[in-house]
Amino acid sequence: MKIVSLEAHDVRFPTSRELDGSDAMNPDPDYSAAYVVLRTDESRDGRPLEGHGFCFTIGRGNEVCVAAINAYAPLVEGAELDPGDLGGFSRRLLHDSQLRWLGPEKGAVHMAAAAIINAAFDLAGKAAGLPVWRLLAEMAPEQIVDLADWRYLTDALTPERALELLRDAAPGRAARTETLLARGYPAYTTTPGWLGYTDDKLVRLSREAVADGFTQIKLKVGADLDDDVRRLRLARDAVGPGVRIAVDANQRWDVAPAIEWMRALEPFAPYWIEEPTSPDDVLGHAAIRRGVAPVKVATGEHIANRVLVKQMLQAGAIDVLQIDACRVAGVTENVAILLLAAAYGVPVCPHAGGVGLCEAVQHLSMFDFVAVSGSTEDRVIEYVDHLHEHFEDPVRIVQGHYVAPGAPGMSTQMKATSLAAYAHPDGEIWRNH
Amino acid sequence: MKIVSLEAHDVRFPTSRELDGSDAMNPDPDYSAAYVVLRTDESRDGRPLEGHGFCFTIGRGNEVCVAAINAYAPLVEGAELDPGDLGGFSRRLLHDSQLRWLGPEKGAVHMAAAAIINAAFDLAGKAAGLPVWRLLAEMAPEQIVDLADWRYLTDALTPERALELLRDAAPGRAARTETLLARGYPAYTTTPGWLGYTDDKLVRLSREAVADGFTQIKLKVGADLDDDVRRLRLARDAVGPGVRIAVDANQRWDVAPAIEWMRALEPFAPYWIEEPTSPDDVLGHAAIRRGVAPVKVATGEHIANRVLVKQMLQAGAIDVLQIDACRVAGVTENVAILLLAAAYGVPVCPHAGGVGLCEAVQHLSMFDFVAVSGSTEDRVIEYVDHLHEHFEDPVRIVQGHYVAPGAPGMSTQMKATSLAAYAHPDGEIWRNH
């Protein structure tokens, strides 16, 4: 099929008005998407065949990602998309030498590539009539290995070794697919823990989370230690000893303060500390991990690319890897990252929330369970109950689990009415603001 | 003084037509600048007081950096610029939580911040009537320490320790300023070594470099091993055993191939291997360094920020640090990086070339010599003889040394005629292309 046009949209939701999403580094996010539509010359079931994808930002600067998406347009418009060569499609974007200079493989151009690559997978899923998790999970091991860009990885994992991993997991695929369809994939919720919420709201939402079947919640920390001690105590009292409470500092600390702060929170048994410091600081995370054990160290939503993930694993810097669907180069780079994590035996617990991140990332974890790691042990996908109503195929959570999506594509298509109303700056929501 | 407006320009030079700047990863660069003019409500010597700065790209995507510069405009336009608080100015840009999300501290938004921060230093230098190297070198140690953003650095270097370093260097400042003014700062040249050049051109330019007083040249490698062996042999024969030949792979290799390739080049005594692999790969550089000794490992032009520099030093991953004036957040982040390098005793040999990078970065090395490391031993600034004619105050090279600039500012102001002619896509050079 031929991609006849690439369309980029600047879509923003005024979430800062309610302090949803507030944390120690991001006090007033307006959840936003630099959104891509790939149009083709084909149709399915009488409707034009399109791919939808996006990258996530928190407001200002979303237009920079839109500009970066448009910078890739000459490489995409008019191109044939071979659903059997999505690795090649991805590498053609990422290896453009002039655009690569703006990273390499990081920042706005990389996020833009993520939006386009995810849109291509949404398109391929719709063309095949399969949800993307299943499209991936039904590929031959050789096809999966070919999705990844192996440059810079071979000192940690070769394509040959990755192929062995995938072949070892192949016999169990059918049974795990049944399990996934029957039980869903475990989730945890960040809904109770935003920094801008009152104590009463924190306690009420924590109790609701447990009643809803979640076995893990998450609290934002890092702005004020006394507040954190009080809030963590309230949350622990609310959920009891059997529920895991993760805490998330959103990159607030240097190495020594991270260790000190976490020692002060230890009496309330936090499960993991997320983003204690800069996402670029492999050696810093390793030092913090040594300093805060048995509390686990988690990071990944802001890790720029597979080269930094590789080093986090090589250095033993993290206990939990938190992939993001749209910060690295979409499905293809995340496939490489899932293979790395499986090779090192580190569980992947994706970052989600934002706008559409839950919808997108569930496909990656479900693929991982069926075809890569083969396990959901100590693995949970983040869930936040924001903005799902804007999507055609929103996530469904039942008893603390993501229900495996059945609709073709990557669940990344926003409703046309939302695209129009929240368009920045000319949609009605912003015009009247 | 008040910044009344921020103007962003997309300026591109069609260098790909001559294969100037061609290397193993960047076959056809069009050297470009996302260029900033800060206009103020003041004047000096009857001329309006302005600051000029830029970041460097190689063509496509330059418009993305321009968009990122414009994204900062609301933080800059109408702001008071206190030349005594350029650290504060810099941190206000870099800590904007919504724009930070697009990095953090990397990619297009970080390069845009570099352009603006360098323009602010150009402005401050012009306001004070001093070249920026001297503006910096005459600051009190406390003022210099306050330029840096210390977040994420304190496990390697605290502001208190940095202050000690600067105080220790203070008594020698006057004598070193005299030395610098008399002798200039050592340079090396990359002019002979572009991958697209013929063997004859390589030999001729190598001989010319030695005749011009350079004691180090650099060759691009990494596309084809047989070619590299032949070219390095030709260059070694042309310059003789006493001249250093650095080689530069521009991120072409994984760890094992880097070591193998360099073993094959060892007979020709390369001085350093530059960018053997991904600039994000701290542990990979450390492994390569162990594998290629006594050849030195150099990197830095694509290192995104001070956190990655910190780790390169902590891990003993590099022998030579190659700062870039415009990829990290301009003068302020480079001050932090120079302090880190001095603390770890690693020499800084800046990346230059491109468009205007020589002009900008000389100020940083000269400041380093006078006020930070206090040495030019094993330190050279890259020199490439491209595109200097477009600048108001171009670099001057005498006997293989950069002459210390005397004009106020950062030497980053492009001629108005060049800004107009090379404007993309509407300047005459591109309109007629």
Automatic annotation (TrEMBL), chains A, B:
<feature type="domain" description="Mandelate racemase/muconate lactonizing enzyme C-terminal">
    <location>
        <begin position="199"/>
        <end position="295"/>
    </location>
</feature>
<dbReference type="InterPro" id="IPR046945">
    <property type="entry name" value="RHMD-like"/>
</dbReference>
<dbReference type="GO" id="GO:0016052">
    <property type="term" value="P:carbohydrate catabolic process"/>
</dbReference>
<keyword id="KW-0460">Magnesium</keyword>
<dbReference type="InterPro" id="IPR029065">
    <property type="entry name" value="Enolase_C-like"/>
</dbReference>
<dbReference type="InterPro" id="IPR036849">
    <property type="entry name" value="Enolase-like_C_sf"/>
</dbReference>
<dbReference type="GO" id="GO:0000287">
    <property type="term" value="F:magnesium ion binding"/>
</dbReference>
<dbReference type="GO" id="GO:0050023">
    <property type="term" value="F:L-fuconate dehydratase activity"/>
</dbReference>
<keyword id="KW-0456">Lyase</keyword>
<keyword id="KW-0479">Metal-binding</keyword>
<dbReference type="InterPro" id="IPR034610">
    <property type="entry name" value="L-fuconate_dehydratase"/>
</dbReference>
<protein>
    <submittedName>
        <fullName>Fuconate dehydratase</fullName>
    </submittedName>
</protein>
<dbReference type="InterPro" id="IPR018110">
    <property type="entry name" value="Mandel_Rmase/mucon_lact_enz_CS"/>
</dbReference>
<dbReference type="GO" id="GO:0009063">
    <property type="term" value="P:amino acid catabolic process"/>
</dbReference>
<dbReference type="Pfam" id="PF13378">
    <property type="entry name" value="MR_MLE_C"/>
</dbReference>
<dbReference type="InterPro" id="IPR029017">
    <property type="entry name" value="Enolase-like_N"/>
</dbReference>
<dbReference type="InterPro" id="IPR013342">
    <property type="entry name" value="Mandelate_racemase_C"/>
</dbReference>
